[in-house]
């Protein structure tokens, strides 16, 4: 649209300019022809007349007035011997000084543009053309300069009319171009806009959304491609949902079905253990019981994971003291810590209350403590509980084997182990941290990990004080206070 307006403006300017130049040139040519004919006619009349010097200019004025009166298209000014330019109705200022010099210095015919000034001061000044030449009277020793002034009143009106017409036509063309541009743009942009809306709805989950196909052009091809893509997405997502449902159902069914033989095996081990006749048999029962307990933990974790995958996990929120929950879990894990010679220290204020599901928070702390004790290698495990106005944080720091920085997010994966050759001393299903991350997300909280090889690991749990609240600022840093400041790690 802007380009079209520029072209119209430039084109109209040059059109008016060329038309004006043509009109002025035509007027100049007409003025020269008219002046030539009049000069020849006056010169012929003077040649056949025996004039005295005193009456020469009177005769010239009469002849010039007669010629001007007959034509009505120009005014005549004659250079008098004493009084200068003589004319009726037109001011001598209408003749440029440069033209007067040229006519006085040489014979010939000269033209120049001018502004015609009238002596009555009522008629407005108008542009015009001055044609200067000379006359020779019989018996005169010098030529007589004479000037023909042609007002361009009609030409100015014509140019003004042309300018108005060009502006009017240009405005109409601009309006037509604007309408055409609007209609064309709307025709092109409406399907694209509809495609954008459809894509947004598809991204929002409305997989049954489709575009209307009109015609056979490229936009229709785009609409068909969008519809095909939506159909493919709907089919693929449906297949994935069915596979996910089958997987979740399989895990849940297997977990439930395995409980029955586990119960039977436990009853059998109890009966064997009740008759401790053979020491080897008693030891075997103890090993079998330990493995069954581990297997039951795995089954419970699998059931919990299946609930998370199915979106069936819910919070049983109540107002709890997080410090007391942490103390209780430290007491539970103390026998294992003593067996592994791992001291546990607690740095906590008197009370830090929050609206949480105590079972899930206790499970998170239990998993963090168990992992820290197992990997501490005899060094102290430091537990910190602090809070601020919006959140409560629990930090668990060990100084054991640690892990690589790139593994900070992988530790929350299912069945992931940083060192596959390392033998578990505490036990567990390998799903503890994965379930802990899900429990933290269910509380709208954070569970992050920091680790360095040989420097230990640091896990941070941050939960909002109010159920469903937002964490504006964490009460605990993402890295431990004894970490190297030059070796920082972003939150994971």
SSE topology sketch:
Elements: H1 2-47, H2 53-71, E1 75-79, E2 85-86, H3 97-105, E3 110-116, E4 126-135, E5 144-151, H4 153-203, H5 218-273, H6 279-310, E6 318-321, H7 322-339, E7 344-348, E8 353-356, H8 358-375, E9 381-387, E10 391-398, H9 432-442, E11 446-452, E12 456-464
Parallel strand pairs: 7-9
Antiparallel strand pairs: 1-2, 1-5, 3-4, 4-5, 6-8, 9-10, 10-12, 11-12
Helix pairs in contact: 1-4, 4-5, 5-6, 6-9, 7-8, 8-9
Main location: membrane
Region (Disordered): 471-492
Biased composition (Low complexity): 474-483
Description:
With 492 residues, the protein is α+β, with helices and mostly antiparallel strands. It folds into three domains: 2-160, Beta-Lactamase; 218-310, Signal transduction histidine kinase, dimerisation/phosphotransfer (DHp) domain (Helix Hairpins), CATH 1.10.287.130; 318-464, Heat Shock Protein 90 (2-Layer Sandwich). 53% of the residues lie in helices and 15% in strands. It is built from nine helices and twelve strands. The protein has a five-stranded antiparallel sheet with strand order 2-1-5-4-3, sandwiched between helices. A five-stranded mixed sheet has the order 7-9-10-12-11. The protein has a two-stranded antiparallel ribbon with strand order 6-8. A hairpin with a 3-residue loop joins strand 9 and strand 10 (391-398). Helix 4 (153-203) runs parallel beside helix 5 and helix 8 (358-375) packs antiparallel against helix 9. The longest helix has 56 residues, at 218-273. The two termini are 52 Å apart.
């Amino acid at each position: 649209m802007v380009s079209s307006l520029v072209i119209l403006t430039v084109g109209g300017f040059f059109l008016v300019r060329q038309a004006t130049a043509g009109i002025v040139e035509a007027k100049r040519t007409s003025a020269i022809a008219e002046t030539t004919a009049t000069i020849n006619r006056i010169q012929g009349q003077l040649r056949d007349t025996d004039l005295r010097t005193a009456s020469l200019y009177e005769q010239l004025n009469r002849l010039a007035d007669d010629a001007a009166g007959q034509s009505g298209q120009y005014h005549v000014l004659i250079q008098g011997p004493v009084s200068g330019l003589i004319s009726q109705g037109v001011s001598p200022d209408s003749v440029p000084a440069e033209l007067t010099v040229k006519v006085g210095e040489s014979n010939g015919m000269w033209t120049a543009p001018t502004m015609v000034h009238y002596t009555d001061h009522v008629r407005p000044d108008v542009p015009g053309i001055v044609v200067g030449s000379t006359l020779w009277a019989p018996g005169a020793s010098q030529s007589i300069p004479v000037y023909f002034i042609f007002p361009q009143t009609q030409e100015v009106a014509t140019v003004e009319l042309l300018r108005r017409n060009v502006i009017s036509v240009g405005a109409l063309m601009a309006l037509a171009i604007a309408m055409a541009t609007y209609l064309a743009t709307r025709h092109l942009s409406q399907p694209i806009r509809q495609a954008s809306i459809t894509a947004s709805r598809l991204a929002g989950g409305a997989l049954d959304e489709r575009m209307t196909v009109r015609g056979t052009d490229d936009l229709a091809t785009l609409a068909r491609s969008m519809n095909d893509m939506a159909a493919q997405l709907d089919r693929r997502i449906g297949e994935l949902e069915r596979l996910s449902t089958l997987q979740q159902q399989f895990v849940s069914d297997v977990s439930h079905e395995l409980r029955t033989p586990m119960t039977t095996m436990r009853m059998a081990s109890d009966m064997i253990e009740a008759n401790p006749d053979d020491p080897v048999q008693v030891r075997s029962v103890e090993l079998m019981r330990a493995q069954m307990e581990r297997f039951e933990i795995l089954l419970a974790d699998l059931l919990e994971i299946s609930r998370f995958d199915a979106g069936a996990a819910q919070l049983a929120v109540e107002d709890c003291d997080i410090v007391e929950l942490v103390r209780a879990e430290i007491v539970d894990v103390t026998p294992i810590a003593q067996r592994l010679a791992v001291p546990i220290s607690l740095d906590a204020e008197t009370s830090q209350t929050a609206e949480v599901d105590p079972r899930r928070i206790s499970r998170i702390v239990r998993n963090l403590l168990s992992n820290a004790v197992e990997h501490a290698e005899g060094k102290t495990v430091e537990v910190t509980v602090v809070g601020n106005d919006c959140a409560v944080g629990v930090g668990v720091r060990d100084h054991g084997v640690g892990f690589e920085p790139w593994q900070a997010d992988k530790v929350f994966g299912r069945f992931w182990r940083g060192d596959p050759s390392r033998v578990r001393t505490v036990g567990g299903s390998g799903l503890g941290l994965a379930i802990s991350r899900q429990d933290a997300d269910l509380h709208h909280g954070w569970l992050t990990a920091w680790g360095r090889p040989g420097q230990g690991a640091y896990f941070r749990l941050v939960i909002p004080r109010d159920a469903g609240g937002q964490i504006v600022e964490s009460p605990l840093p993402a890295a431990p206070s004894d970490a190297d400041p030059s070796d920082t790690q972003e939150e994971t």
